[in-house]
Write a structure and sequence with these properties.
Shape: globular
Radius of gyration: 18 Å
Order of helices and strands: HEEHEEEEEEEEE
Structural class: mainly beta
Largest sheet: 5 strands, antiparallel
Mean pLDDT: 79
Length: about 150
Amino acid sequence: MLKHSAFVLSFAFLLSSCAVVQTAPQRGTASMDTKTILPVPANRGADEAAGVLVAYDFTGDGAIKKGECRWRVINETSKKSYFITLDVTHGSAYAPLEPGTYKTAKLGCGLTKVWDLDDTFAGGFKVQEGSASYLGKLSFVFEAGDLSEVK
């Protein structure tokens, strides 16, 4: 019994100390603080919640340096809109979404900057019941203060 308790405590300590992870070199080797997206929402196990996780950065000449942007996504079945809030200085975001296929819509930053992102994911992206879908590392590239592409 004592050995089992020591193992459980060691394992719990190990999990609690894993706060920052680093992405693979081909994804930019960015560090991500997992405490901002974890723990999983308390109601997830009860109602099979789902969501989306995205890592991102804002780069280029005139890139937005502070504040938040809101990325609108639309569930293709229910036609409901959802917003994924992207804190410019953070680099990752989690948004709870109902399961289904989503198309991307607009990205808005501040009061007046809005860009059309309809073609960001050809065919949209899927969110499965009881899972968090990972959209990948996105780079919002700016030229002269305007969004020029999403990589």
